[in-house]
Design brief:
It is a single chain. This protein has 364 residues and is of the alpha/beta class. The chain folds into 2 domains: 3-147, Glucose Oxidase, domain 1 (3-Layer(bba) Sandwich), CATH 3.50.30; 154-363, 3-Layer(aba) Sandwich (Rossmann fold), CATH 3.40.50.880. The chain has helices spanning 41-45, 100-106, 117-127, 143-147, 154-158, 185-192, 207-213, 231-241, 252-260, 347-363, and strands spanning 3-8, 13-20, 28-35, 53-57, 61-62, 81-84, 86-87, 110-113, 130-135, 164-166, 174-180, 196-202, 217-220, 247-250, 265-281, 287-298, 307-313, 319-324, 329-332. Strands 10-12-11-13-14-19-18-17-15-16 form a 10-stranded mixed beta sheet, with helices on both faces. A 7-stranded mixed barrel has the order 1-2-8-6-4-3-9. Strands 5-7 form a two-stranded parallel ribbon. The longest helix is centred in the C-terminal third of the chain and has 17 residues, at 347-363.
């Protein structure tokens, strides 16, 4: 493997070796973020929420169980680059269908290994999220140019192109519309296994179209980018809130629903990414370990009178959940469908189902 370099926008240079796709042209430019998950690297690579970012794995050995397509969260990787301390060249797992190097090459993703990922993570934690570039030669790289990089139109570039329907194996008990803002596949799976017929719709779908579909519930998915950029989507969600259709938002869906109700969002210093984020349920005092992947948060002090916080992050106190008091809607910042990761908060899908059934009984 040939030498390769990571150059940060502050001028710091890391020397390592390349794997995955060949570094071409100016290299791979993106926002540097780190995830603390010990497993689930396939889910990380294929999570659309990482669109436009170069992901750093803090766990030192990656690739040891190879590539398993059944674990993918979408059809292809969305990262701009991938950085690990050590990648396993001889994976071993009974489900393994390939190795990480070939997978990255096939999908055009540049990889970098052999650098001090602990030092890199400390820099991001201390100075905040910053941009970086993986290059074959750092001599001509200008840090000021790296700093100018921005992730734009992320939802538009990761949402599905057309409506898709997924049926449960048994009887259809409920119809749910899943807004795809860059959805992880396991959100759909979690609904289908609970007897829901799931219609996945593109992010730009109008409130009028949703009303025409007459779903029993609406699911707002995760996704990438700055939530406040999605002004058109926010306006459609504002219209939908008046229809009083049971609604459940996750991650970006949580943020967009809050924005539609007049709240504000802010960018975090370095975000929450990993499978070990503690969240406190304010109703019970119980702390759950959750899987997360986000760089923005809802500003708690801007919540409207008809909303209240339901969860907070036990590390930094940021908003992790909201319940709307005058309509059947709630949302969480973390991933209750987490795969890989703890499934302790999977019960929230059951609460959503109960909300749907209660709403239907009132209509009857």
């Amino acid at each position: 493997m040939s030498k390769a370099y990571l150059v940060l926008e502050n001028g710091t240079v890391f020397e390592g070796k390349s794997f995955g796709a060949e570094i071409s042209g100016d290299g791979a430019l993106g926002e540097i973020v780190f995830t603390t998950a010990m497993t689930g690297y396939l889910e990380t690579l294929t999570d659309p929420s990482y669109y436009g970012q170069i992901v750093v794995q803090t766990f030192p050995l990656i690739g040891n169980y190879g590539v398993i397509p059944e674990d993918f969260e979408s059809s292809c990787p969305h990262v701009k680059g991938y950085i690990v301390r050590q990648w396993c060249q001889e994976p071993s797992n009974f489900r393994c269908q390939g190795d990480l190097d070939i997978f990255l090459r096939k999908n055009g993703i540049v990889g970098l290994y052999g650098i001090d990922t602990r030092r890199l993570t400390r820099i991001v934690r201390e100075h905040g999220v910053m941009n970086g570039k993986i290059a074959a030669d750092y001599s001509g790289v200008v840090p000021e140019d790296i700093k100018d990089y921005r992730i734009i139109k992320a939802v538009e570039k990761t949402t599905c192109g057309q409506e898709q329907v997924f049926e449960p194996e048994g009887k259809v008990l409920r119809d749910v519309v899943l807004y795809d803002f860059g959805a992880k596949a396991n959100i759909c799976r979690s609904l289908v296994k609970r007897g829901c017929r799931v219609r996945v719709v593109p992010a730009g779908t109008s409130a009028e179209r949703i009303k025409e579909l007459a779903p029993d519930g609406i699911m707002l998915s995760n996704g990438p980018g700055d939530p406040a950029e999605n002004t058109g989507i926010i306006e459609e969600l504002r219209k939908l809130s008046g229809l009083r259709i049971p609604t459940f938002g996750i991650c970006l869906g949580h943020q967009l629903l809050a924005l539609a109700h007049g709240a504000k969002t802010e960018k975090l210093k370095y975000g929450h990414r990993g499978a070990n984020q503690p969240c406190k349920d304010l109703a019970t005092g119980r702390v759950y370990i959750t899987s997360q992947n986000h760089g923005y948060a809802v500003v708690s002090s801007t919540l409207p009178e008809n909303a209240e916080e339901s969860f907070i992050n036990a590390n930094d106190g940021t908003c992790e959940g909201i319940r709307y008091l005058d309509e059947p809607a709630f949302s969480v910042q973390f991933h209750p469908e987490a795969c890989a990761g703890p499934l302790d908060t999977g019960y929230l899908f059951d609460e959503f189902i109960e909300m749907i059934d209660l709403n239907r009984s009132k209509e009857d």
